[in-house]
Specification:
221 residues, alpha/beta, Nucleotidyltransferase, domain 5, five-stranded mixed beta sheet, 8 helices, globular, DNA polymerase III subunit epsilon, 3'-5' exonuclease activity, hydrolase
């Protein structure tokens, strides 16, 4: 068996994994949610790259602005045609870090939080692709999609997919800093906090398991 060697991952991944050894509390008010968004060079998970990551935490039904992360990545892949969407130039004045440095910061911030995103499957997949480039496993966190959570409210059964713009308008959420990772994360956090009370109206004992329960596959692609 000399050919078999257990893979040793870097310390930052081991520190991230260690958070999942503790028991999970399913009471919504006790769960730390981290709402996140990524701005990318495009929608091709295999070829496109992350330009920026924005995180903000929610605990006990409140957004904790102090518990947040914002980082910009060096653009090894540059697509000029997408600048009009996200506004991020290849150089510019923003401090940019490597993909590995961004992943280290991201993992250190999220820990074992329940991740929340709008159209979460893409954001999780693009992070997982970055992890794969670093020789690391996929994210271990539970994931919620605000689009799917809105479907659970049954306020609108006319379609299956709802854009962040349409739901923001529906719930009168100002779209400040739209199409920036931090701005979209904050808008999504407000949306999440609008949806939860509606779900509680039909289930006073609503907990994390109820939020996670879905026939759809969300997140860990």
């Amino acid at each position: 068996m000399s050919w078999f060697k257990k893979r040793i991952y870097p310390e930052y991944w081991q520190a991230y994994e260690a958070h999942f050894k503790q028991a999970t509390n399913n009471h919504i008010n006790s769960v730390r949610f981290v709402v996140f968004d990524t701005e990318t060079t495009g929608l091709d998970i295999k070829e496109d790259r992350i330009l920026s990551i924005g995180n903000v935490a929610i605990l006990n039904n409140s957004i904790h602005v102090i518990d947040q992360l914002e980082c910009y990545l060096k653009q090894d892949l540059f697509k000029a045609e997408t600048v009009k969407i996200h506004g991020l130039l290849k150089e510019g004045s923003l401090k940019k870090i490597s993909e590995e440095e961004a992943i280290i910061l991201f993992l250190a911030h999220i820990k074992d939080a329940v991740l929340v995103a709008h159209h979460a499957a893409f954001d999780v997949a693009i992070i997982n692709k970055a992890l794969r480039r670093l020789g690391l496993p996929k994210l271990k966190n539970k994931v919620l999609d605000t689009g799917v959570l809105f479907q659970k409210t049954k306020l609108d059964t006319s379609k299956m997919h709802f854009s962040l713009d349409s739901l923001s308008e529906r719930f009168n959420i100002p779209q400040h800093d739209r199409h920036t990772a931090s701005g979209d994360a904050y808008i999504t956090a407000l949306l999440f906090l609008k949806i939860i009370p509606i779900l509680k109206q039909s289930n006073k004992n609503l907990d994390l398991k109820d939020l996670l329960r879905s026939n759809q596959r969300i997140g860990l692609l």
